[in-house]
Amino acid sequence: MSERLHHELARFDGALPLERARTIPASWYFDSAVCERERQAVFGDTWQVVGRVDQVAKSGAFLTATVASEPILVLRDAEGVLRAFYNVCRHRAAPLLTEAQGQVTKLRCRYHGWTYDLAGRLRGTPEFDGVLDFCKEEQGLVPLAVDTWGPLVGVHGGQQPGSLADHLAPLPERTAGRGLEALRFVERREYELACNWKVYVDNFLDGGYHVNTVHPGLAGVLDYANYRTEVFGQTSLQSSPLQAPAAGDDDAVGRVRTGDLALYWWVFPNFMLNLYEGVMDTNLVMPLGPDRCQVVFDFYFTRPEGAAVTAFERGSIAVAHQVQREDVQICEEVQRGLASRSFDAGRFSVRREVAGYHFHRLLAVKLRDAGA
C-alpha cells in the first residue's frame, strides 16, 4: 500500500460511537487508488452473488458474470458438481464463454482453440508440439470457491471463504418460513448509474431516512414510525410494518406490496434482498469505475413453474422500477456533491443510520487489513 493511500484510509475513524462518528471521506467515492484497493481487497475477498441456481441446474449448464472487472464462469460438470473458474484461457487470456448463460459439453477458446473439460482440465492445445517445459496438467482453469443458498449462486476468490450461508447469516435463519422455496424467477433488469457503488449502498442503508422525501409512493405503505434497523456480522436488516395507503393516495404501490411486513436485507459489500409477501427482488451493485456502477435487479414471485406473467407481477416490477428511477436521480446528485470542495465527511442520524455506519466500518477494515 502506498503512503498516500495509507494516509487516505486512516482518515476514517470507525472506533467512534455512532453519535460521534463521521462518514468515510468524500474522496473514497472517486479516488482511483481506493477503487483499485476495493477491487482486490473487497470484491476479490468476499462472497459475490453471480447468478441463480436455476441457471446451472443441469450438467453442462453455465452462467458468466463480471465481478469488479474479473470475468467469472460457473458451470455444472458432467458429474453434477458445481464449479467456478476465472473465465480466462491460460494461453492468451481470451474468454472461454461469452454468452450470459447456456449449455456446453466442453469449453473451447474461440481465439486459438484451446479446449478444457467441464472440470476445468486442459485437454486440447492445437499446434503446440515442441513447446518445452510445458505441463498440460498444470494449465487447467483457475478455480474459485462456489456455493449456493436458496436460489443464489455465489463465488469467492479469497483463501478462507467459509460458506455462503455463514456469510449471509442470520438471513437464512430469519427468512425461514417466509415461503422463499416457492419463489420463482421472473425477470431481470439492469441499470447503469453515474455514481460510485458505495453511494448506492449508503442510500439503501439509511434506515428509511430518505423514503418520505424521495419515494412518496413507497412511503404511503410503510409504517415509518415503526421502521427498525438491526446490524449483524456481515449483514443488516431494515424492517417496516406495512399499511394501507391513506384515502386519496395513489394505491398502485399498495396493490403489489401486501402482507404485514417489509424486509430489506443487505449483505456486505454489495448485495441486497427485498422481501414482501410472495414477492422478492435482489439488487446487486457492481463498480464500473470510481464514478460509475451497475445495479442488477432479479425479480421473484410465488408462482407455479412455467406460469404466465400476471398483472400483479408486472405491476410489482413497475413499482420497483419507479423506486429505482427515484434512487438513480438522488444517487447521481450525491455523487456530484461529493466532488465539491465544500464537503469532506458527514454525520450519521443516530435514530436512522446505524446500518450505514456498520457498512463504513466493515469497508474500512477490509481496505486496511488486506495484505497487511
What does this molecule look like?
The protein has 372 residues and is an alpha+beta fold. The protein is 25% helix and 28% strand. It is built from 10 helices and 17 strands. It has helices spanning 3-9, 32-41, 164-168, 171-175, 197-204, 211-214, 216-219, 252-256, 311-338, 354-369; strands at residues 48-52, 61-67, 70-76, 82-86, 101-103, 107-108, 115-116, 122-124, 143-149, 152-156, 183-193, 228-231, 235-241, 261-267, 271-276, 279-289, 292-302. Strands 1-10-9-4-3-2-5 form a 7-stranded antiparallel sheet, with no helix packed on it.
For the terminal residues, how far apart are their CA atoms? Answer: 9 Å
Radius of gyration: 22 Å
Total strand count, please? 17
Low-pLDDT stretches? none
Number of helices: 10
Strand order of the largest sheet: 1-10-9-4-3-2-5
Largest sheet: 7 strands, antiparallel
Give the strand content.
25-35%
Average per-residue pLDDT, rounded, comes to 95
Which H/E pattern describes the elements? HHEEEEEEEEEEHHEHHHEEHEEEEHH
Structural class: alpha+beta
**Helical amount:** 10-25%
**Which shape, going by the Cα principal axes?**
globular
